[in-house]
Structure formats: structure tokens, C-alpha cells
Amino acid sequence: MDELIFFINRGVVGGLIIGSVYALGAVGVTLIFGILRFAHFAHGDMMTASAFIALALAATLSSLGITLPIPLVLALLPVVMVLTALFAIGLDRAFYRPLRKRGAKPVVLVMASIGVTLMLQGLIRLFAGTGSRDMYLDAPKTIFRIPTGGRPIVLTEPQVALIALTVLSVVALHLFLTRSRLGKAMRAVSDNPDLARVTGIPIERVVKATWAIGGGLAAIAGTMLAMDVQLKPDLAYNILLPIFAAAILGGIGQPYGAIAGGYLIGFAETLAVFNFSVLLRPFRDLLPAGFEIPASLAMVPTEYRLVVPFFILVAVLIYRPTGIFKGRVF
Length: 330
Prior knowledge:
- By secondary structure, this protein is an all-alpha fold.
- Helices cover 67% and strands 2% of the residues.
- A two-stranded antiparallel sheet has the order 1-2.
């Protein structure tokens, strides 16, 4: 029983948490690609920047003696989402819109996003330094233990909040894309930009909405990830590849596919580094004499976990480049 609970703690819960981060990031990437037709490599640094914005706001309130029943960073998340959305729109206005007006090809926009990535990384290190920071300023992280009769299932406060916020975000995104006029306009622009422009759909308004949604989701993913681990200038550096792998696996330009791809990548990565010898230990007495269970039965060492999304990405590009959600989803 304890071995099964350990598997749930490390495998199922771990995959759910990291899959939620990947899903939120991949939706932003795939929306931007679906509307603007280029891969935004600076999306991960938007997530990092949002976490630093949240920490700066929380530190300001904490210095004024303001305390709340919940962590200040979590309470400020709606404000951080709005600020990150405005920040994303500002990036577009400063760097990408001038290139679009000049008729730049998508590859030029991709190279510009790499330049924005380097710029954001440098600015974050310039103003925030290179050290790690704890997002909990007023109280330690709350840990929830779900009793099972043996070893409990363990969840932390940011993990519970991340799962809940991901569910709410997915539902809200679905309702927005299918029920609202602006959401339907975004779907029309993604399907045929020229026809949408001719029919009078406000393209610039759609572009702003795309960046706002991508920025808001990046704020949730970046802030919750920083709360669960620690805030570092390279917080999102190692998750950029899994985010793009999730977007391509689900079908580039398709937000629902990006959500599914995010969870598939998250569970695949978590289970690949899980030590399955733990599950075999209760059966050691049934094994033949002289046969011992290996100390580690992980498919991939923990330090090479990024190999998993890279392998999945290459396999999808070779065998199913359209992704698992083939056809129109967005």
C-alpha cells in the first residue's frame, strides 16, 4: 500500500502538476502561432517575468505590514495576470507589430522572438540578480496530507491552487472561444486571416486578445511554478522545450490539443524518471533465490528528464506532424 501511495505522490501527482504548467504554457504558444503564425520563443521568459512581478508586488505589500489569510502572491495573481497581459501586448507593439507592418516573414518574427528572449533574460538578471528567492514572504508553505491508512498523499498549497486554476482556465477559455464574439473572431482569423479581414473582423483587436490571453495564462503557470519550487532567473528555461513539444504534440495552433499535449508530456516525463523498483519491493519474497530487484528501474535518469519531451517531439514530427488532434479544433 505504501508503495502505491509513493507512486501516486511521485508519479500521478507529479505528472498532474508539471502537466498543468506545460498545458498553460502550450496554450499561449499555440494561440500566438494560430493567430500570428510564428513560434514565440520568449514565452517562457514571460512566465519568469510574471513571477518576478508577483514577488515584487507581494514584497511591497509585505513591507507595508499587510497580511492575508492566503499567501500574498496567490492573492495578487489576478493583478499579476492583468500586468503580464499588458506586458505581452507591449512586447508585441514594440517588437513584433512593426515587423508585421513591414511584411516580415514568419522566420523573421521567430528570430525577433529569440532576440526578445535574450533581452528579457538579461533584464531579469540585471534587476533581480542571479540568486534564488522564496515566494512565501509572510508564512511557510502549507502542506496538505490526505490520509490513506498508511503513507498519506501529499499536496502543497501551490499545487492545489495550480490544479484548480488550470481547470478554471480551461473552462473559461473554452467558453470564451465558443460563446463570445471575440472568441469566434479569433477562430475565424486563425482559420483564414485574409477572409476575416475582408469581412470586417478587427484584426488588431484579435491580436491584442491573443497576447492578453497568452500573457494571463503565462502568469498563472510562472507564478504557481515559482511558488511550488523557487523563483530563479532561469525558472522557465528548462520548460520551454516541453511547452513547444506539448503544443506540437497536441497539434500546433489548436488550444485544446495543447492542453492534452501538456498533460501527456508531463506524465510521460514524470513516469520516465520514476523508480519502478519501488512497486516491485512487496514481491521480493516471491522472486527466485539469488535474484534481486535493481536499486533503480527508472527509464531515464532524473538529470536527463528533458530527453523525454525531446524524444516525443522528434517522434511526432517524423510520424505525425499534424499532432494527435488532427483537423480543425481551434
